[in-house]
Amino acid sequence: IPCSIHNNILDGSKHVAAIIAETIRNSQAEGKACVLGLATGSTPKTLYAELVRMHREEGLSFANVISFNLDEYYPIEREAYQSYYHFMHRMLFNHVDMKPEHIHIPNGEWPKDAIKQYCLEYEKQIEEAGGVDLQILGIGMNGHIGFNEPGSSIHSHTRLTNLDNTTRFANLYEFPNISQVPRLAITMGISTILKAKKIVLMAWGSGKAPVVQKAAEEHMTEHIPASLLQQHTDTLFVLDAAAAAELT
Ligand code: F6R
């Protein structure tokens, strides 16, 4: 997988922001909507800050952007600070000219007995929007993308899934204690992600270096979900020097 390596998180984030801005402006020039797939977690925080800056200082408009977030905890209340709904509004949506009806985030409040139908509907909404033009990803220490934990099938769709305990501990910093970290999440599947026209995965820091090396350079395996991105013809890894340190 091609890698773009930067001195620090800010430079890497600016690189991704420039790719997003170009995708948005190309769609605007063609008079079309731009469909973005978005991620949460600590990795894209600087990216969203940079997009907000570009909106304020460079007139980058999100009026034609339709977004689909990768995942959400389940169950969780939308207004909970830890929800990805809350995160996205705090980091990006409250500060740019996104139309509320263009924002899609899996709903962690949906009744459990109707989740299957809800997930099918999420996939259908992506298709009806014309498919994802650009999918932004982070990567878990265990190689997960979205919340597709190791063992997730390359054919997986949007669904309710179990979080690995390692993932729950990695995300504990947002919650009062481990028992409060949800055990489930709604996530786009690997096949959902692979349908995107372009994919950009970001990773920062030495902790991610081993898994970045495996995903980018070793054989494809469902044990390292991010390695399945090798199937895709337009995927780029954007890394800081520390995350790139184990590449050969
Ligand atoms: C979040 C997501 C996850 C994170 C991953 C890395 O929407 O899809 O796959 O990208 O868990 O999390 P951070 O960025 O917190 O290291």
Present the secondary structure layout.
Blueprint: E1 3-6, H1 9-29, E2 34-38, H2 45-58, E3 65-69, E4 71-74, H3 84-91, E5 103-104, H4 115-128, E6 134-137, E7 159-162, H5 165-170, E8 184-187, H6 190-194, E9 198-203, H7 209-217, E10 235-240
Parallel strand pairs: 1-10, 2-3, 2-6, 3-5, 6-9, 9-10
Antiparallel strand pairs: 4-8, 7-8
Helix pairs in contact: 1-2
The chain binds fructose -6-phosphate (F6R).
Provide an overview of this structure:
The strands form two sheets. A seven-stranded parallel β-sheet has the order 1-10-9-6-2-3-5, with helices on both faces. A three-stranded antiparallel β-sheet has the order 4-8-7. The longest helix has 21 residues, at 9-29. The protein has a single domain, classed as Rossmann fold (3-Layer(aba) Sandwich), CATH 3.40.50. It has helices spanning 9-29, 45-58, 84-91, 115-128, 165-170, 190-194, 209-217, and strands spanning 3-6, 34-38, 65-69, 71-74, 103-104, 134-137, 159-162, 184-187, 198-203, 235-240. α7 (209-217) links the parallel β9 (198-203) and β10 (235-240). It is of the alpha/beta class and 248 residues long. The protein contains seven helices and ten strands. The radius of gyration is 17 Å and the shape is globular. Fructose -6-phosphate binds at residues 39-43, 70-71, 138-140, 144-146. Fructose -6-phosphate binds next to loops.
